[in-house]
Each structure stands twice: as structure tokens, then as C-alpha cells.
Design a protein that fits this description.
About 30% of the residues lie in helices and about 15% in strands. With about 250 residues, the chain is an alpha/beta fold. A 6-stranded mixed beta sheet has the order 5-2-1-6-7-8. The protein has a two-stranded antiparallel ribbon with strand order 3-4.
């Protein structure tokens, strides 16, 4: 670990787009943020892949209790076996066209555990499986499994500050899209440098389909060799320091 580690903190997403992995490559510690209210219809239990006819379609994980009445780490998969088969079925149209179909199916097998109904652990296993396949470093911790002493009421821009402060982060990296949430001065007061990441599009060929932008990593993996994806993850990110009162 770096002497003054850089942290990234994100909710657990289901095979997220390339930018998520770009952030992972740019930090020393990845914190899976699963201690706040669950938000239905987000990237935590679904993502987008190509539709066999045109455009895109959702691939999703049905939940037994996906509502705002639970914390994210309490979200349970309705039927892990059925969910795995559904994902495999949604991907089957790639079989005769995508050169890395078999490799992706192997990643799906690695990710799903038929005896584990935790959505968070499913999402984390997916991130870990992809990072191993791409040879990307992935040092992570899950917030709900740590002894963090977090105030009960925090504004959206305060969670990262509190977590970074308690864990001794030297800096924090957040997507540029969330810039309005953060106060650079408050980070500086606690000795934490604040950075933003601009994530750019990675375009690739999808033989026999019309290309769709910013799809799940599942689609990217279907069409591209691991070394090309690893390189794209590192190249399609621009990191800038925060300046002034953000």
C-alpha cells in the first residue's frame, strides 16, 4: 500500500461499465459503500447489454427485498440459481458472434454462488473476477464488514470524508460527475487531497450489432481481448486535483 493511500468509494454495482474499473486502477484502496439506504432501479442489481435485435436490453438480478426500507448490505437475491441461469440466457445471443463468449461465461460461473443470496457479495465477486481476468489490482474492503464509527445523519458529500478520515486516506478520488457534492476545503482541513476523474468513452467493434455506448463490462468483455481492456481502463481516465471551494 502507498504511504498515503488514495481511496475510491462506490456502491456495489453489477458488472459496471469500464469507467468503474478505471477508478479501481487509479486508487490504492477500494471501499464498497453498502451502509446506506438501498436504492431500487440502480446499477446495483442490473446493467445494460446488447439486444439481439437492436439497441440494448437490461440484464438484472431479481431481489427478494429490494426496497428503500433496507440498507444496501441487506439486499437479498430472490433465487441465485435462477438469477445465474437468467444472466446466462440473456448472454446466449452473443455465442455465435462474440469472440470471447466462453471467457465471459466462465466469469459468470466464478461470480455466482448458488448458496449465497447477498447482492453485495455477488457484485463484489463480479468485480474481483473481472479484475483477475484483466490482471488489474483490486484491493477492496466492504464498509458493512468494518467497524466504522459513522454518524447516523450525513449529507451525500460527507460520507467519503468521514470514511477517508477514519481510515487514514491521503487522498480521495471521485468521478467528476459528483463534483457538486464535495467541499475541497473540508477535505483539506483533515489533510486529505481531493481529486476528480473524468472518464472517457472506449469504443470497440461489435460485429453484427450496432454499437451502443457505456454498456456493462459484460459487453466489453465479449468483444475485446483482456490486454486491450486493461489498457483502455488505464487510458480512458483523466485525473485532476480539486481547486478552491468545490
Amino acid at each position: 500500500m502507498a504511504h498515503n493511500p488514495r481511496f475510491g468509494i462506490m456502491q456495489p454495482y453489477f458488472f459496471p461499465y469500464l469507467g468503474h474499473f478505471s477508478l479501481i486502477t487509479a486508487v490504492d484502496d477500494w471501499l464498497v459503500f453498502d451502509v446506506t439506504q438501498y436504492t431500487p432501479k440502480t446499477w446495483m442489481n442490473r446493467n445494460r447489454i446488447l439486444n439481439p435485435n437492436d439497441g440494448w436490453q437490461y440484464v438484472s438480478i431479481p431481489l427478494a427485498n429490494g426496497s428503500i426500507s433496507i440498507k444496501t448490505h441487506e439486499a437479498k437475491i430472490l433465487d441465485p440459481v435462477k438469477a445465474r441461469k437468467n444472466v446466462q440466457g440473456k448472454l446466449s445471443h452473443y455465442k455465435r458472434k462474440a469472440p470471447y463468449y466462453d471467457a465471459v461465461l466462465n466469469l459468470i460461473e466464478e461470480t455466482f454462488d448458488d448458496d449465497d443470496d447477498s447482492l453485495v457479495r455477488l457484485d463484489v465477486r463480479g468485480l474481483a473476477a473481472v479484475c483477475r481476468y484483466l490482471n488489474l489490482p483490486f484491493r477492496y474492503r466492504i464498509c458493512s464488514e468494518m467497524n466504522l464509527n459513522l454518524p447516523a445523519t450525513l449529507e451525500p458529500g460527507e460520507w467519503a470524508l468521514e470514511i477517508c478520515s477514519q481510515l487514514g486516506a491521503g487522498s480521495y478520488l471521485n468521478p467528476f460527475s459528483g463534483k457538486a457534492l464535495f467541499d475541497q476545503t473540508r477535505f483539506a482541513e483533515r489533510g486529505i487531497d481531493l481529486y476528480y476523474a473524468k472518464l472517457t468513452e472506449f469504443r470497440y467493434r461489435t460485429m453484427g450489432y450496432r454499437y451502443e455506448s457505456y454498456l456493462s463490462m459484460l459487453d466489453i468483455l465479449m468483444w475485446n481481448p483482456p490486454d486491450a481492456i486493461s489498457r483502455a481502463a488505464r487510458e480512458h481516465i483523466v485525473i485532476e486535483p480539486a481547486t478552491g471551494n468545490e
